[in-house]
Design goal:
Largest interface: A-B, 32 and 24 residues
Largest sheet of chain B: none
Structural class of chain A: mainly alpha
Number of domains of chain A: 3
Distance between the termini of chain A: 15 Å
Order of helices and strands of chain B: HHHH
Radius of gyration of chain B: 12 Å
Order of helices and strands of chain A: HHHHHHHHHHHHHHHHHHH
Radius of gyration of chain A: 24 Å
Oligomer: heterodimer
CATH class of chain B: Mainly Alpha
Low-confidence stretches of chain A: 445-449, 484-492
Mean pLDDT of chain A: 87
Number of helices of chain A: 19
Low-confidence stretches of chain B: none
CATH superfamily of chain B: ACP-like
Number of strands of chain B: 0
Number of helices of chain B: 4
Number of domains of chain B: 1
Strand content of chain B: under 5%
Amino acid sequence: MSPCSLGFLASVLLLAAVFAVLRGPRGRQILLGLANAGFIASFHPRASTLLATAGFLLASWGVLSLSARRPSGKLVLGGVTGALAFLIALKAGGANPDSNVQPWVSWSDTVGLSYMVFKFIHVLVDVNEKQVRRLSLGTYLNYQLAFFTLTAGPINRYNDFEAAWSGGPDVRPPGPAESFALWSRIFSGAIKMAIVASALGAAIAHGDKWAGPSVAPAAYLRPLLQFYLFPLQIYFDFSGYTDIMIGCAGLLGFKIPENFDRPFGARNLVEFWNRWHMSLTHWLRVYVFMAAYRFVAERHRTHLRAAGYVLLGTTLVLFGLWHGFTDGYFVFGVVSGLGVVATQMWGDMLSARLGRAGHRRYLARPGIRGLAVVATFHFFCFSELFFARELPNLAGDLRAVLDEFSQSSTAGVLAALPRLALLPAAASLLVLAYSRSPRVRAVATAGAPSAPAPGPFRSFASMTLRAGVLALFLIEQAFDRTRPVVGFYRTF
Amino acid sequence: MTDTRARLQGIFRQVFDDPALELRDEWTADDVDGWDSLRHTELIIAIEKAFGIRFAIAEMARTREPGSNVGTLLELLRTKVDARR
């Protein structure tokens, strides 16, 4: 079920209304359990897929129960290895396109299993280290299957979920102003996904035809549009999805983490990855990088910093491969990893050469900051080329550009250049202006923003405006069903 | 109490290579130059070695999250040091 669909939005409205009248945690737990089951059923999974998912959940619960009773490093190692092997087997054993026989269970059928594996590892490590407050089967199953985190995160913490699930004194239906704000966020997310991301997708696919040959040859323009618009398309699609789910969770008394924090205003790649798909990068930072770095540091005293750089790069490679075992995702991970390591090394080198105060002065120079933001944006766009396309397709695009180049006269190429340069120039200026906006600068200088909550009237007005825009789009779409709504989030 | 704080300040100075650093409870990772994931892990390892304690992975993460600050780290450290006694 698409989170932008009328069916989904109506279901959330009904859920929120029932939640508001229920008293006590038991009724709310039953309500959320039913909602989770209904959401899974809406994907029409095959029985074999359901069986595989249930098998994973029960096996993982068994490991957790054992670990809670008798904490053991070996059990954690075994549990993590088993869960990753399950994930790898599913992702690597996809359907054979040359065969008519469908595999018993394939990755494309499953919903949210890679997130479930990551959540299980988090709970297992924390249970083993006695960091989980209350572990129970019902809570664990609903933590894993909660519809607002099932398909694409955000990866929330078990303790946070458990606190809301068990219905402490703080768990109550949101008041009018908060409800309007949450609905406003849901509508805003739906607009981002259904309208903005879809429009960007269409521009990538057809932008060269819309512009016409007088602007530039299609072979030149198509890769440029892909380069600049695909990262934006993913951002609007995925952050829109996250907005919707954060809104839904809030209406049911759950607070789930943010996934995006104005990433295109980041001044370097380390900062960028702290603001993009934050819940996953946070998970990787904690359960892969920090755990591995401490493991190495406890055993080796020499070349520690070099080991840190290698682990940092490796973490980003794993981030790439988590999306799927394709050469494109691997290269995306390698490019991102190299970028982050280079950023970290550059920062360390500057700090060593200029001293702490000198480094601070250097970073505060507006020209350096502007250049860094634009360069970071372009580097990310470059890395996303490998994310978006399989390597043979990318090579095909490059061949088309070279063919066009070799067939064109020098005068023709020179005439196209200024028009082609307009797109990078406009993108750079837009990113620069965006990074200088007060809200983005506030994030850059003082960590997470904490804007005061708007009052009920403002929240209501904002919600109504967004609902109106979305309604217009949904009505228009009802008359033209040929345009699909992009659902990138569903890929994983 | 004061001893724990003074020792923690010494570790901060060493890890962040800043002999003049004066630790303040309200400081977050944004207030200390170079307090990134790499340095945070090195900081935790140095604290563990100096005090003979061990942080859980979740605690390592918690001490570098938005809203967390030096005061949070100090409090957690004191709890662990007291529990060891």
